[in-house]
Design a protein that fits this description.
The complex is a heterodimer. By secondary structure, chain A is of the alpha/beta class. Chain A has 18 helices and 20 strands. Chain A has a six-stranded mixed β-sheet, with helices on both faces. Chain A starts with 15 loop residues before the first strand and ends in a 25-residue tail after the last helix. Chain B has one domain (25-339). Classes of the chains: A alpha/beta, B mainly alpha.
Chain lengths: 538, 340
């Protein structure tokens, strides 16, 4: 065992837990990481910051053993690896909560939490007996740590029956089963509302108190500052900064991440016109939301927010015809409208950019052109009712230029684009349908600072062109920067409507959380513990 | 306001029934069996006779042994259509070899040979699926042709009806024997014990070992299993090897019970067996299915194949009934996953 030269930059007193030395990674011809060296100390919290494509995901995949580096070494607890296997990482106490959570949808909560620890215990050997009582015991302990129930019924619930926020906690519970030394959380708050984020922060504090290090991968600077600790900034596959978070202002960090300064406080420039594009009255879907009424004018940007179980997501689905409402009226452009499917919505001029652009919206392996034109194929028919390649190309070319999608060629697959550009392709598809109303559902989830900026400008540009834009989001600053008005939903109803000028985040947050605990409401399904056992039952 | 509070409670009651069906899809299978049995029994009360019951169990043996292998592959997210070819290959090669080398060989040795052949051919499937990442449907369609073609081309095409002594004895051995009131002798073959043993073993492996849970994990999501450190290659080799092993065993048992080794046998019946597993609640998309469910699915298919005749349904219509039941059951299963 060699004595490494001590690291003078490290302010921490903890021992070095993990050391990366000159780690590189190339995919084909693309350099994802260009020589990253990094020390992580025990009992510390780190925030790995960087834009999409900066190499964050690659870095954590290398640390967790999911991918081997192309060059460089990884030292964990004094042992140096050229190639760390997933099992090696687990045995060294490195646990990863992936952005996709990496839970098995078909297995029970108990098995999802406890199986990897059983795997590690046997050194990866599969042919060994498994005691179900032991699995339950291990799982119960871990679930208690994150505040989830441990009843038989919950332990036996298959993970795909759980709402996403609960899945997130299950994934975190799994990461605490092994005596972890480092827990990596990849965008853990992407699917969580503010209250659930508070819960997560509590869990992080407990981990830190136990001497466990936590590495967050995140876009959300505000949350990073709330949690505190250290920052590591990546840009273009290189480490550009490491140090105490408190030593840097938000503006500095944003600059480090993007290489450009961003200090816009508001994007909203125009103002709504008279004409009402969308009028909703008494819209109801049983078990999700009820009696929702509002109007949206030409050139207006309207925000809708609420906690995860407030019905905001279901409202967005109803307005776009994905899961139609069962009562109430909608008028689009002054005419009564009945939406039974997304096709109806498209025909009426209501465009919908779904929340999860990757799973709900885009055909990732198909080309940019195909993704853009898929909703308007009937308009691109040439002679003999076959698709006119020429027209399709012209339309796609126009849209790429119009929305400034950064790509050399519209025939490249969408998955070759960065997250922000994928988002633009999706918006482009809807613009191709010539909508009057555009619904953006969580438009910047998982999008980096630079792309957010571009997207917000685009939203304002669209409103300027006379579209009515509805943003459904839990990102409050986003709503404040972009909207004319914001509707706050609670328990499936519109609790309050705010006019944005003069509104601040604190007021909005208060309204969101108002009367929150203990409300014995007719809670819609999809509440935090909807799939957890019902006590007693009425 | 009280009406509002009452509403979700009322809405919850039926959904909890759905939930239990979601968790135990084999209950659907059981309901189908009960409904079908009552219908057939009402039309012809011979359905509920001891003779018919024993007949059903006897017919379940071969299908059951094969089906448990198929279940293991389906649970891991794969599919195997080559197992009938493996079964007949193992049966014919073992019988022919025994007859020419040592006709008095003990049955255990023959079984060992048949198991080894089945295991070997199954592992070939697994190796190709894992190494070349080819969808298992394509691989096993290919190997089905290869195994069966090789058997007919290189080993032989003649029926063997003069079986090795031990195999003949095994085929005749009975577990229970009674004579019914109208003087018909009914007997449950000893081979039924093989099915029981295989079912217990499969249940133990799938439920009570890490390997078994890894099978379901891989069926749930192969990339995630890989990322979490499961040795996916081992799992795939195991499931295809195990399906081959059981196919070898099933082939030999089938030959012993039918008192012949026919190289043209079995191939063509794989869909019946896969249907039984699917009717037992395993999804073709992987990650689900249980041993009790599969056994129920086998019973259901066997009832349809054997007993519709008692209802006066012509044998040509049996396929229509199996198809219709698969469609109804998959409709129910699809709804449960949509509501989950």
């Amino acid at each position: 065992m060699t004595h490494d030269s001590s690291t003078p930059t490290a302010p921490s007193t903890g021992e070095v837990l993990l050391r990366l030395t000159d780690v590189t990674k190339t995919f084909g011809g693309v350099q994802a990481l260009r020589g990253v060296s990094l020390d992580l100390h025990a009992g510390e919290v780190y925030h790995l910051l960087g834009e999409n494509g900066s190499g964050k995901s690659t870095l954590i995949k290398i640390i967790s053993g999911a991918q081997p580096p192309s060059g460089g070494t990884i030292t964990v607890r004094g042992r140096t690896y050229r190639r760390l296997r997933a099992l090696d990482a687990l045995e060294a106490g490195i646990e990863t909560v992936y952005q996709d959570l990496s839970l098995f949808p078909n297995l029970s909560v108990a098995e999802n939490v406890a199986l990897s620890s059983q795997l590690v215990r046997g050194g990866g050997r599969l042919a060994r007996p498994l005691d179900p009582a032991e699995v339950r015991r291990v799982a119960s302990e871990a679930l208690t740590r994150v505040g989830l129930p441990t009843s038989e019924d919950f332990l036996d619930t298959a993970v795909d029956e759980l709402p996403i926020a609960v899945r997130q906690l299950v994934a975190i519970a799994r990461s605490t089963v092994i005596r972890a030394s480092l827990v990596i959380m990849d965008e853990p708050t992407a699917a969580l509302t503010q209250r659930e984020v508070e819960n997560l922060i509590g869990i992080v504090d407990r981990l830190r108190a136990d001497g466990v290090s936590v590495l967050f991968v995140t876009h959300k600077l505000d949350e990073a500052y709330r949690i505190g600790g250290n920052l590591v900034v990546l840009r273009d596959g290189q480490k550009v900064a490491q140090g105490r978070l408190a030593d840097h202002t938000k503006a500095e960090v944003a600059y480090l991440m993007t290489g450009q300064t961003l200090d816009r406080t508001t994007y909203r420039a125009g103002s709504p016109q008279e004409e009402i594009l969308l009028e909703v009255s008494g819209l109801t879907r049983r078990g999700a939301f009820s009696d929702v009424s509002f109007t949206l004018r030409r050139g207006e940007v309207l925000g809708v927010t609420g906690l995860l179980d407030s019905g905001r997501n279901e409202l967005a689905h109803a307005l776009s015809g994905v899961r139609p409402a069962d009562a109430g009226k909608m008028r689009v452009g002054g005419r009564d409208a009945r939406l039974r499917s997304p096709r109806d919505a498209i025909d009426l001029g209501v465009g919908y950019v779904p929340e999860d652009r990757l799973t709900e919206g885009l055909f990732l392996e198909k080309s940019i052109r195909e993704n853009m034109i898929v909703s308007v194929l009937d308009r691109l028919l040439g002679r003999a009712r076959t698709l006119s390649a020429e027209r399709a190309e012209r339309l796609a070319g126009d849209l790429v230029r119009d929305l400034r999608v950064a790509t050399p060629n519209v025939e490249l697959p969408v998955q070759s684009l960065s997250g922000g550009n994928q988002q633009r392709v999706l918006v482009a598809r809807w613009l191709a349908t010539r909508p009057r109303v555009l619904i953006l559902h969580g438009p910047t989830m998982g999008v980096d600072v630079g792309s957010k900026d571009a997207l917000y400008r685009l939203v304002q540009d669209l409103a300027q062109r006379g579209l009515g834009v509805l943003i459904v989001s839990d990102d409050l600053p986003e709503l404040l920067m972009n909207c004319d008005r914001v509707l706050v939903m609670r328990h499936g109803r519109v609790a309050r409507e705010f006019s944005v000028p003069g509104l601040d985040e604190a007021t909005l947050t208060r309204e969101l959380l108002d009367d929150r605990p203990l409300a014995p409401s007719p809670a819609p399904p999809g509440g935090l513990l909807a799939a957890a056992p019902e006590k007693g039952g009425d | 306001m009280s009406g509002l509070l009452g509403e979700p409670a009322a809405a919850r009651a039926p959904s909890s029934t759905w939930r239990s069906l979601t968790r135990r899809p084999e209950l659907v299978t059981l309901l189908l069996i009960v409904a079908l049995s009552l219908t057939i029994g009402l039309i012809n009360d011979r359905f509920f006779s001891v003779q018919n019951g024993v007949d059903l169990l006897r017919s379940s043996i071969r299908t059951g042994i094969f089906a448990l292998g198929v279940l293991t592959v389906l649970a891991a997210g794969g599919i195997d259509v080559s197992f009938t070819a493996i079964g007949v290959f193992a049966l014919y090669v073992t019988t022919k070899l025994t007859m020419s080398v040592w006709p008095d060989a003990p049955f255990a040795l023959m079984a060992l040979a048949s198991l080894a052949i089945g295991l070997g051919l199954g592992l070939v499937n697994g190796l190709i699926v894992y190494r070349f990442r080819v969808p298992s449907l394509i691989v096993t369609i290919g190997t089905q042709y290869v195994y069966r073609g090789a058997l007919l081309a290189f080993v032989g095409t003649a029926y063997i009806t003069d079986l090795p002594r031990a195999m003949d004895a095994f085929g005749r051995a009975t577990l229970l024997q009674t004579t019914t009131a109208d003087g018909i002798r009914v007997s449950l073959p000893a081979a039924f014990l093989v099915l029981v043993a295989v079912a217990l073993l499969t249940w133990y492996v799938l439920r009570r070992t890490l390997l078994g849970r890894a099978v379901y994990a891989v069926g749930g999501s192969l990339p995630i299993a890989e990322r979490l450190g499961f040795n996916v290659g081992r799992v795939l080799l195991f499931v295809f090897g195990y399906a081959g092993l059981l196919a070898g065993l099933g082939g030999l048992v089938h030959g012993a019970m039918n008192r012949q080794a026919n190289p043209f046998d079995l191939v063509g019946s794989e869909l019946d067996i896969i249907a039984a597993v699917v009717l037992g609640g395993a999804r073709v998309t992987g990650g689900t299915g249980s041993v009790p469910g599969t056994l129920l699915g086998v019973v259901l298919v066997v009832i349809i194949n054997n007993s519709l005749i008692l209802m006066g349904v012509p044998s040509t219509w049996q396929k229509v009934v199996i198809g219709a039941i698969i469609l109804v059951a998959s409709g129910i299963f699809a709804r449960r996953s949509a509501t989950a």
